[in-house]
From TrEMBL:
It is found in: Cell envelope. One of its GO terms (cellular component) is cell envelope. This is Efflux RND transporter periplasmic adaptor subunit. Residues 392-411 are annotated as: Disordered. One of its GO terms (molecular function) is transmembrane transporter activity. Belongs to the membrane fusion protein (MFP) (TC 8.A.1) family. It comes from Denitrobaculum tricleocarpae. PANTHER family: ACRA/E-RELATED COMPONENT OF DRUG EFFLUX TRANSPORTER, CATION EFFLUX PUMP. GO terms for biological process: response to antibiotic. Residues 327-373 form the Multidrug resistance protein MdtA-like C-terminal permuted SH3 domain. Residues 392-402 have a biased composition (Polar residues). Residues 76-216 form the Multidrug resistance protein MdtA-like barrel-sandwich hybrid domain.
């Protein structure tokens, strides 16, 4: 580079440095003014955010508690032979529905028929003996008055008559027992219901007694029990409700749900509570009763049960999405004084049809902010909009947008 070029470059550099310094000097007053030396700029007040709200209203709701239980038959009988003999007939099919008094099995009745015939003959003979003894007694009483026979003879005739009466009574008892045994030879259903299978088949010998085998079993089906355990807290609540209205436990409704590909609900009521709480589990055994005319409910089935209160209550319900969690507390946002957001701690109760019962924290008329947990904070000004109003506004806006689109000319 030549000496002339170097001199020109140095001159340009000096000129640029001077310009920068001058710019900084003239810019300084503006910077100072913006940092507080100049006039203050007025801040604009935050605009109120539109939020959907719902006024708190109570609804008449029956509270339900859910339990699991098992079904059991109201009547269940194991049939055993009451006389000995060979099984001659089986008159039912496995699983058949029968009525009380139907003959199910026949034990060879011939020995018992013979016993009945023998007892009848004994009774007939005892009757003849009694009639003769009665005549002799009457004759002896007449003759002793005339002195034709001694008192000893009369006393003997009286004794013979008394023995004859006893023999007749004994013969009658033997006949009754023989007829009972003959009746036992025809094994009958003691209750109406559904039979199990035949445990003893035709041709087998059975004997009566404490070790007698089970021939079959039968369970009633018209009604059925559901047994389940109720925790102490819920039990006390139900008892307290009944005490207030002076009702009986049978007034407590129970719903039973069975899953048969679709949920089928049966309605019943409490039959009884046990007489003590199990200290090991803190529960009391409850028994509900349900109609089962179709016979589709079977003993031993697992069932989901809901136990309801004796009466409906005025309750506040909220969607879970409108309830926030603050560590171990639950809260909602409501529209407070000056149309600002207010934090309100609430206490939750049971779940009812997907909603939660609010037992404490809200009063009639409070406006709860819906779905705004992530959008608003306490103290923020808001414009409350009822859901119906918001829906109308959205519909109007959509209609206006559609009309505008129609009015635009096509290219």
């Amino acid at each position: 580079m030549s000496a002339g070029s170097k001199l020109k470059t140095a001159s340009v550099t000096v000129a640029l440095i001077g310009a920068v310094a001058a710019g900084g000097y003239f810019a300084k007053p503006y910077l100072v003014g913006s940092m507080g030396a100049g006039p203050a700029v007025a801040q604009t007040a935050p605009q109120a955010m539109p939020v959907k709200v719902a006024p708190v209203e109570t609804q008449q709701i029956r509270l339900w508690s859910e339990f699991s239980g098992r079904l059991s038959a109201i009547d269940q009988v194991e049939l055993r032979p009451q006389v000995s003999g060979t099984i001659q007939e089986v008159r039912f099919e496995d699983g058949q529905m029968v009525q009380k008094g139907d003959v199910l099995m026949v034990i060879d009745p011939r020995p018992y028929e013979a016993a009945v015939a023998e007892a009848k003959a004994e009774l007939n003979a005892a009757g003849h003996t009694l009639r003769l003894a009665k005549k002799q007694r009457v004759r002896a009483e007449q003759l002793v008055k005339k002195g034709h026979v001694s008192k000893a003879v009369r006393d003997q005739r009286v004794s013979d008559h008394t023995v004859a009466v006893s023999r007749v009574n004994s013969a009658k008892a033997q006949l009754i027992q023989a007829e009972i045994n003959l009746n036992y030879a025809y094994v009958k259903a003691p209750i109406s219901g559904r039979l199990s299978r035949a445990e003893i088949t035709v041709g087998n010998l059975v004997e009566a007694g404490p070790n007698a085998p089970v021939l079959t079993s039968i369970v009633s089906t018209d009604e059925i029990y559901a047994d389940f355990d109720v925790d102490e807290r819920n039990y006390l609540r139900y008892v307290h409700e009944l005490t207030k209205v002076g009702g009986a436990v049978s007034e407590l409704p129970v719903e039973l749900t069975i899953d048969v590909g679709e949920l089928r609900v049966y309605k019943g009521h409490i039959h009884s509570f046990d007489n003590q709480i199990d200290p090991a589990t803190g529960t009391i055994r409850a028994r509900a009763i349900f109609s089962n005319e179709s016979g589709s409910l079977l003993p031993g089935m697992f069932a989901e049960l809901r136990l309801g209160g004796s009466d409906v209550e005025d309750l506040v319900l909220l969607n879970p999405g409108d309830i926030g969690t603050d560590q171990d507390r639950k809260f909602v946002y409501v529209v407070g004084e000056g149309s600002t957001v207010e934090y309100r701690e609430v206490a939750l109760g049971a779940s009812v049809e997907g909603k939660r019962v609010i037992t404490r924290g809200l009063a009639q008329g409070d406006q709860v902010i819906l779905g705004g947990l992530m959008k608003v904070r306490p103290g923020v000004p808001v414009t409350p909009i009822l859901p119906e109003t918001a829906q109308t506004a959205e519909t109007t806006q959509l209609s206006a947008t559609a009309d505008t689109a129609k009015a635009e000319p096509s290219n």
